[in-house]
Amino acid sequence: xxxxxxxxxxxxxxxxxxxxxxxxxxxxxxxxxxxxxxxxxxxxxxxxxxxxxxxxxxxxxxxxxxxxxxxxxxxxxxxxxxxxxxxxxxxxxxxxxxxxxxxxxxxxxxxxxxxxxxxxxxxxxxxxxxxxxxxxxxxxxxxxxxxxxxxxxxxxxxxxxxxxx
Length: 165
Prior knowledge:
Elements: H1 2-24, H2 26-32, E1 36-42, H3 47-58, E2 61-66, H4 71-77, E3 87-91, E4 94-98, H5 102-111, E5 117-120, E6 142-149, E7 156-164
Parallel strand pairs: 1-2, 4-5
Antiparallel strand pairs: 1-3, 3-4, 5-6, 6-7
C-alpha cells in the first residue's frame, strides 16, 4: 500500500513539474497542449507564408496548407481585397488574413466576438513570417484588425484588435 501511494505522489509531482515547465516555455506548452486546427491557403512559392505557418505550428496550432493561392478563398470568406495579404486561413470559423500573430488568434478564440475574423493587411516587416534574418532588426508598426459585418447592411468594417508599435 505504501509503495502505491509513493508512486501516485511521484506521478502527481511529475505532472506538476511538466505543467510549470510548460507554462514557462511557450514551445513546450504548444507541444503538450491540444493543437488547434488551422487551414491556410497560399501560393506554393511564398516563403513568408511558410514562415507564418511555422510560427503558428510553434505556437500550438496544427496547420493544413493548401498551395492553391488565396484570392478565391478570401472572397468566399467575405474578406475585402483592401484587407488582403499573401495568405488566408480559417480557424474555428474565423478568417485570418495575412501575418496575424498567434497570440492574437488565441485571444480571438478565447473572446469569441461576433466577427468574420482578423486581418493584417499587406505584409508589414516585423510581423510573424516577415521577421526573418533578411529583414535585420527592422520592425514596422502595424495593426491587427477585427473584421465585422453589419447584419442589416452587410457592410464590412474594421477596428483595431491589437496595435504593434
